[in-house]
Write a structure and sequence with these properties.
Blueprint (H helix, E strand, L loop, with lengths): L2 H22 L17 H13 L4 H12 L7 H25 L5 H19 L5 H28 L5 H22 L6 H26 L12 H31 L7 H29 L1
Length: 298
């Protein structure tokens, strides 16, 4: 697979991931209940209270919320999110290994992963009632997609006598996750209303640039990388993508914190874990692209 093909496919993978990420919004759980139809009942009361609290709601709202959730079943805990996230992570890794092993003899596995991840990601993001099965299916197809595209990048890097590209991208993703968790947990970076507004404006701009870059990549712009392969500015754009994906993790952490604090239903741990997985997939792709372009310049 040539450089143009690899660069263009990576941007397609990125757009598939970002489609789910955008529909999930900056706060993947609180947004779910912002504007429901009248009479949505228990779930709406939970989400609306959580959203109000996140925006600085009063104690009366919280008291009303607590009385509703007390009779509505098990509450969300951090352990719930950790367990679900671990399950999804393991599934994604296993399917990535499968995709890596199959794609040399069956390149169509990449497209199967792409289409499956897009379909189940969008359905999960827009579905009002979270479905664990759909979330698991997203992890399955996203894993296939990641394994296949990672193999393609690895082969391209080996052709340029560059080894360890994928392992470096994995280490970079885990490192970014740890750093963002530390910055959020210690309060060094505050996730407030201003932060979210600025971030979403930057994210929308970046998404539009990525779409335009895909068109450019199809015509060979930047050696097949689109705008991302255009000299210094392309590298700067890649770095911006890594930063955006990293800071998106903070919004996921904040969603989890708010959900636990407000006692959302335990079932929503699947949706929160889904949002976290989507961000990690995006972050990995951004780091993989940045390292690949750097490798091609050596």
């Amino acid at each position: 697979m040539g450089l143009v093909g690899v660069g263009g496919l990576e941007i397609v993978c990125y757009l598939v991931t970002m489609s789910s990420r955008f529909s999930h919004t900056a706060n993947p759980i609180l947004k779910r209940y912002e504007a429901p139809a009248k009479g949505d009942g228990f779930a709406y009361a939970e989400g609306q209270s959580a959203y109000t609290q996140a925006a600085g709601g009063d104690a009366g709202t919280q008291s009303q919320f607590e009385s509703i959730t007390a009779g509505g079943g098990a509450r969300l805990t951090f352990a719930d999110v950790v367990v679900k996230s671990t399950i999804l992570f393991i599934i994604t890794v296993i399917m990535a290994l499968v995709g890596w092993a199959i794609v040399p003899s069956a390149p169509i596995v990449l497209w199967i992963g792409l289409i499956g991840a897009l379909a189940f990601g969008l359905i999960t993001a827009f579905k009002k009632a979270v479905s664990p099965i759909l979330v698991v299916l997203y992890a399955t197809f996203a894993g296939l997609m990641l394994g296949a595209i990672s193999w393609s990048f690895d082969q391209m890097a080996l052709a340029q006598n560059y080894e360890g590209l994928v392992s470096q991208a994995i280490i970079g993703t885990l490192t970014a996750f740890g750093v963002m968790l530390f910055l959020y947990g210690t309060g060094i970076v505050k996730v407030n209303g201003k932060f979210k507004r600025i971030f979403m404006a930057a994210m929308i701009s970046y998404f539009l640039i990525a779409m335009a870059s895909l068109v450019g990549a199809l015509f060979g712009v930047g050696g097949g990388w689109g705008f991302y392969g255009v000299g210094f500015w392309g590298l700067l754009l890649c770095a911006a993508g890594v930063l955006l994906a990293s800071f998106m993790l903070m919004l996921d952490f904040d969603a989890i914190k708010q959900g636990v604090a407000m006692g959302l239903p335990e079932r929503e741990s699947w949706r929160l874990s889904f949002g976290l997985l989507v961000t990690l997939v995006w972050l990995y792709l951004e780091i993989l692209r940045l390292l690949s372009i750097l490798a091609g310049r050596d």
